[in-house]
Amino acid sequence: MVADERDIVAYFYQSLNNGDYVTAYSLLGSEWQSGISYEDFRAGYLNTGYIMLGSPTLEEEDDGALVSVDITAEERRKSDTVYQGYRMSYTVGYENGEIKILHGKGKKI
Q1: What is the pLDDT of residue 3?
Q2: DSSP code of residue 78
Q3: What is the Cα–Cα distance from 32 to 27, expressed in whole angstroms?
Q4: Please, which domain of life does this record's source organism belong to (predicted)?
Q5: What are the helix (H) ranges across 18-109?
Q6: Which of 13, 69, 79, 83 might form a disulfide with 56, Cβ 3.0–4.6 angstroms?
Q7: CB within 8 A of 107, min separation 6: which ones?
Q8: Exposed / middle / buried, residue 9 (Cβ in 10 Å: 0-12, 13-18, 19+)
Q9: Are 10 and 56 in contact (CB under 8 A)?
Q10: CB count, 10 Å around CB of 92?
Q11: What is the pLDDT of residues 53-87, one digit of tens each?
Q12: Three-state DSSP class for 18?
């Protein structure tokens, strides 16, 4: 189970890197999905190029696990492209028998 929790976060970013926003969105839990439509989710990544992932860390919690990872995102802007680092934290757990990314937050680093 431990590998699955880190793997789902890696799979989420792999899906984004491949432009497969449907799969990335499907990995989110229902509460997260209820807070953002697929169209808005997809639009939020259209100006993002490749996302490089650091090594994810895992902390087990009562209701799942906390997966933290540093990423570097290629962000395309009107005049140029910048590379921005973020420290991301995701709560990963089971929902209806499937492992999902239940919540997430991040900050620029």
Answers
A1: 56
A2: S
A3: 10
A4: Bacteria
A5: 21-26, 30-35, 38-43
A6: 69
A7: 86, 87
A8: buried
A9: yes
A10: 28
A11: 999 999 988 878 999 999 999 999 988 999 999 99
A12: coil
Amino acid at 85: G
Residue 4 CA, chain-centre distance (Å), reads: 14
Number of domains making up the chain: 1
Alpha-carbon distance 60 to 28, whole Å?
A: 19
CA–CA separation, 51 and 7 (whole Å): 15
Q: Which residues pair with 72 in a beta bridge?
A: 52, 85
- Half-sphere exposure of residue 83: CA atoms within 13 angstroms, side-chain side: 7
Q: Quick one: tokens of 59?
A: 């902390």
47-59 residue pLDDT tens = 999 999 999 999 9
**Range(s) of the domain holding residue 34:** 2-108
Residue 26 predicted with pLDDT over 90:
yes
Specify the CATH number for the domain of residue 18: 3.10.450.100
